[in-house]
């Protein structure tokens, strides 16, 4: 039995260290400054263990029962600690307070464990053996935990499930102890029911860990999350603050309803209004339907084809009342045909020719997306552009990512297109850049549709003038086999983030 | 007590493992090659008997790999159309064979063509004809897309194959010195592709690449791994079994003007497909040659079912086979062949990884294998879910004969574990991603440039051997790459046209 109890020491020591590491890691994740977080968490935790050790002298009779109860409390509080902290960060201002309160509480309880265990074991060993054995297993448990934590727990279980799992270990030790001391403990059934109850709570926690993470997700966004959905390709989150709706794709701001009109008017009208007699239009990307909303202001257009990879996105924007409110139901307009396909592959497989093409892809943050900004892509695009037609591509910010912007222009040029770069100010994005491309020149439009909120006819030529700090810089064209744009982009945005 | 403790720990560990995500999914697959069976019957002289239908062809090409197909390519260019190509396998292609499944086409062996130097006229001629090279520029879609290569080193992926993470100053200096030496060698102009036209007899060929590194004072483990990788990759041999001249050739023969290489989902199978567009009517597949008899006025070529009467023969199959099919065969015993095995893994999804993207060629440092190539990498899609990976493994650590024994002795399940453990070093969840692993074993995958062989009189004599029958396999070059196979094939076609 002594051996079995020593194994318990090993396990509870491991659990104790895991909670400490979890708290430190979580605080570092959420608050940053890992040196400060780990130092203060470890310090308060060890101090609290001292409090626990001190308090142990007040535990008199019923040692084993008390030990079991303490195990259950450690299991419950420690097991739920990550969950509580995540939710506290998401929904309250009191994260720091709760963090240290939990650390002190768990530390105190864990501090009680070893002294009680030593007293339980005191009849079975000589004093010097007792100290040696118990502390050996205590430290072994710490070693075990410190290895398991980074190698298995965090990568495989994650923080929420990991804590719950070790809570279950604590509860299991409690249950096991009721079994070992079944002759010496009163109210055995009641203790065991309690053990199962704690295990039940933690088990349910394991099942619903994902929901907890989803709830905590809201913490990332400043405003109230009114919709969050995982599609096959991305995570769509819609937030609302007063009348401002914001759409995030994989945590990147896509638009704010306060100023998206600036972006989309600038994207569509300088081009489309300048194509005389445009009949067929194509939108690549732009599954929110906002570019299409602007294009529907041209009665002469006979058809608009929208190709977006993500059916989850286009469906959402075709059906959700709030979103239909923003895009004016553009995705269900009779002229509009929505196709869910990978744009490059789709263009390759079709031979339609269009008078106006909008390219509204996500920024070239990686080599996969970077393919959509290559000479190969624009050469293909050129085949789909009518002789008098215009194509326009959103091309990141000429201010923040200046070389990236001019790289897109250079790439289109290398693909044999004439380019006409321009820019507009969109408060939630900053200065934003677009590149107009054609086969035969470009003249700004003589008129615009009525009812625009941002653009006026007279200001369109101004969009094509660049201040000195956004003007052309040297850049290589972006090719499939040498995606220099992704490197430019990564470097430039990293410098901004610094 | 301690024994009990350990036991409890062990059971604890098993318990923890059970709680990890499900890993043991069922993986299908098979060893797909079987030609060694027929090959061994040929070796043992069991295929001489039986009735054969007589056929006639002025010229017979034996072997439908790159050498044989390129011989045919040149014959057609010269307006000579009366020839057949006898291919032992069901499909032409040789080391450029490929497969296709519901996810992608994929290579079985050769999977790329380096961007040819300006001096590599023959390769450039073919590239121009296939539409790869237009007005001096290579078509971007056929060049390997970014990112090309990455290396798993010290627990993380880095860009490029040259080790960068964790190098000491001394290591970096050695890499720089190595690059400098290679530039010097390249500047000598003698490292051409194909190699024979430019080469001058060199003392380097008599020592091994390993000895050369030692002599030059290169002892950085990273640099040695890098050079070793090059030798295993191109020649299937360790640096100690590779001629230093060939080792230097690997690093000094390429100009690297354009970012390359040229590659396709099916690897060099793409080139085979293009060649077959014109050559398919000439190809007789599933025809293994069992006997060749050279007479005064012609050559008889016997397969299992036919008796071909011809005026001349191009032997583009591996040269070592000659001794089993003819009297008075030239001595090919100097050619050492490296055994290889390749695997194609079909994946339901790519393994999870943070902060890095899959490259075309993904190499794991200090692995005995060469890593894996992603067949879907050249796809224009922005999002890849399912994929096929080709995994390469030359059995370089043991003598070739021993390697061939191992190939025959180990079953599919053994290789499955070996492969998943190898890739698992870099992708822990690989077992949850793979649904199929198919294997192809190559007992005599490629000729290896062993020290002293490339510039030996025996090799030169073999390359020139022949009259009514000429040899064309890339093994005559001592190294097995596309350009050598093409060079040998085209050269053989030009020689045989003088006879036929």
Question: How would you portray this structure in words?
Answer:
The complex is a heterodimer of chains A (498) and B (500). With 498 residues, chain A is of the alpha/beta class. Chain A has 3 domains: 218 residues, Growth Hormone, Chain: A (Up-down Bundle); 33 residues, no CATH class; 239 residues, Vaccinia Virus protein VP39 (Rossmann fold, 3-Layer(aba) Sandwich), CATH 3.40.50. Helix content of chain A is 56%, strand content 15%. Chain A contains 17 helices and 11 strands. A 7-stranded mixed sheet of chain A has the order 7-6-5-8-9-11-10, with helices on both faces. In chain A, a hairpin with a 3-residue loop joins strand 10 and strand 11. The mean pLDDT of chain A is 90. With 500 residues, chain B is of the alpha/beta class. Chain B has one domain: FAD/NAD(P)-binding domain, CATH 3.50.50. Chain B is 33% helix and 21% strand. Chain B has 15 helices and 23 strands. In chain B, strand 3, helix 3 and strand 4 form a beta-alpha-beta unit. In chain B, helix 3 crosses helix 15 and helix 6 crosses helix 8. The longest helix of chain B is centred in the middle third of the chain and has 19 residues.
């Amino acid at each position: 039995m002594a051996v079995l109890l020593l194994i318990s020491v090993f396990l509870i020591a491991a659990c104790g260290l895991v909670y400490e590491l979890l708290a430190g890691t979580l605080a570092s994740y959420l608050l940053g400054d890992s040196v400060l977080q780990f130092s203060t968490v470890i310090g308060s935790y060890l101090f609290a263990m001292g409090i626990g050790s001190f308090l142990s002298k007040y535990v008199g009779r019923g040692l084993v029962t008390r030990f079991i109860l303490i195990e259950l409390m450690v299991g419950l509080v420690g097991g739920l600690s990550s969950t509580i902290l995540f939710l506290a960060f998401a929904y309250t201002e009191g994260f720091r307070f709760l963090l240290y309160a939990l650390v002190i509480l768990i530390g105190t309880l864990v501090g009680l464990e070893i002294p009680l265990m030593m007293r339980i074991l005191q009849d079975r060993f000589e004093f010097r053996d007792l100290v040696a054995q118990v502390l050996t297993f205590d430290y072994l448990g710490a070693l075990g935990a410190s290895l398991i934590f980074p190698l298995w727990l965090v990568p495989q279980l994650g923080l929420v499930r990991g804590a719950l799992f070790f809570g279950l270990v604590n509860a299991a030790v409690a249950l096991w102890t009721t079994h070992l001391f079944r002759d010496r403990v009163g109210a055995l059934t009641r203790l065991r029911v309690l053990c199962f109850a704690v295990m039940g709570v933690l088990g349910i926690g394991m099942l619903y860990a994902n929901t907890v993470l989803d709830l905590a997700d809201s913490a990332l966004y400043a405003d109230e999350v009114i919709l969050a959905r995982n599609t096959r390709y991305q995570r769509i989150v819609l937030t609302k603050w007063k009348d401002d709706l914001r759409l995030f794709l994989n945590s990147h701001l896509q638009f704010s309803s306060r100023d998206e009109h600036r972006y989309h008017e600038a994207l569509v009208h300088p081009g489309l209004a300048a194509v005389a007699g445009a009949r067929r239009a194509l939108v690549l990307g732009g599954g929110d339907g906002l570019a299409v909303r602007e294009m529907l202001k041209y009665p002469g257009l006979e058809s608009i084809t929208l190709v977006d990879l993500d059916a989850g996105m286009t469906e959402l924007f075709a059906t959700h009342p709030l979103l239909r409110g923003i895009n004016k139901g553009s995705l269900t307009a009779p002229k509009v045909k929505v196709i869910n396909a990978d744009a490059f592959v789709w263009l390759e497989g079709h031979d339609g020719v269009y008078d106006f093409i909008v390219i509204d892809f996500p920024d070239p943050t990686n080599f996969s997306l970077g393919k959509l900004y290559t000479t190969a892509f624009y050469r293909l695009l050129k085949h789909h552009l009518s002789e008098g037609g215009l194509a326009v591509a959103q091309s990141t910010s000429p201010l923040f990512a200046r070389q990236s912007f001019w790289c897109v222009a250079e790439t289109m040029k290398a693909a044999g297109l004439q380019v006409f770069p321009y820019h507009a100010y969109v408060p939630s994005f900053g200065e934003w850049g677009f590149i107009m491309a054609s086969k035969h020149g470009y003249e700004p439009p003589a008129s615009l549709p009525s009812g625009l909120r941002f653009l006026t006819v007279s200001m369109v030529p101004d969009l094509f003038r660049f201040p000195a700090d956004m003007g052309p810089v040297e850049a290589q064209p972006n090719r499939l086999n040498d995606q220099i744009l992704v490197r430019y982009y990564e470097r430039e945005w990293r410098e901004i983030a610094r | 007590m301690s024994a009990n403790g350990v036991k409890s720990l062990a059971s604890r560990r098993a318990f923890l493992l059970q709680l990890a995500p499900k890993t043991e999914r069922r993986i299908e697959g098979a060893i797909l090659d079987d030609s060694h069976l027929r090959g061994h019957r040929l070796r043992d002289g069991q295929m001489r008997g039986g009735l054969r239908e007589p056929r006639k062809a002025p010229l017979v090409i034996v072997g439908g790999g790159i050498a044989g197909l390129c011989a045919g390519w040149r014959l057609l260019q010269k307006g000579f159309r009366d020839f057949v190509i006898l291919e032992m396998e069901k499909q032409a292609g040789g080391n450029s064979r490929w497969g296709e499944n519901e996810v992608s086409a994929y290579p079985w062996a050769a999977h790329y063509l380096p961007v040819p130097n300006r001096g590599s006229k023959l390769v450039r001629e073919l590239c121009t004809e296939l539409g790869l090279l237009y007005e001096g520029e290579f078509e971007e879609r056929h060049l390997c897309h970014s990112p090309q290569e990455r290396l798993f080193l010290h627990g993380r992926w880095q860009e490029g194959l040259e080790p960068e993470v964790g190098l000491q100053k001394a290591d970096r200096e050695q890499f720089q010195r190595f690059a400098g030496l290679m530039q010097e060698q390249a500047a000598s102009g003698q490292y051409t592709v194909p190699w024979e036209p430019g080469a001058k007899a060199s003392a380097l060929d008599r020592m091994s690449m390993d000895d050369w590194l030692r002599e030059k004072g290169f002892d950085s483990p990273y640099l040695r791994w890098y050079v070793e990788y090059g030798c295993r990759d191109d020649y299937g041999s360790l640096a100690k079994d590779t001629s230093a001249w060939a080792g230097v050739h690997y690093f000094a023969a390429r100009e690297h003007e354009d970012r390359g290489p040229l590659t396709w989902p099916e690897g060099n199978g793409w080139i085979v497909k293009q060649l077959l567009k014109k050559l398919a009517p000439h190809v007789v597949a599933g025809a293994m040659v069992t006997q060749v008899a050279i007479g005064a006025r012609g050559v008889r070529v016997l397969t299992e079912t036919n008796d071909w009467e011809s005026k001349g023969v191009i032997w583009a199959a591996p040269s070592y086979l000659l001794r089993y099919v003819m009297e008075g065969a030239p001595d090919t015993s100097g050619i050492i062949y490296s055994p290889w095995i390749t695997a194609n893994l079909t994946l339901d999804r790519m393994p999870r990884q943070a902060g890095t993207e899959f490259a075309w060629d993904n190499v794991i440092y200090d692995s005995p294998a060469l890593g894996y190539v992603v067949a879907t990498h050249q796809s224009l899609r922005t999002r890849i879910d399912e994929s096929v990976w080709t995994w390469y493994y030359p059995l370089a650590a043991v003598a070739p004969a021993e390697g061939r024994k191992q190939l025959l002795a180990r079953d599919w399940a053994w290789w499955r574990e070996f492969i998943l453990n190898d890739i698992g070093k870099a992708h822990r969840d690989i077992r949850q991603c793979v649904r199929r692993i198919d294997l192809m074993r190559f007992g005599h995958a490629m000729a290896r440039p062993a020290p002293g062989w490339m510039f030996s009189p025996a090799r030169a004599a073999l390359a020139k051997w022949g009259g009514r029958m000429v040899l064309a396999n890339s093994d005559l070059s001592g190294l097995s790459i596309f350009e050598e196979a093409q060079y040998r094939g085209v050269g053989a076609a030009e020689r045989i046209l003088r006879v036929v």
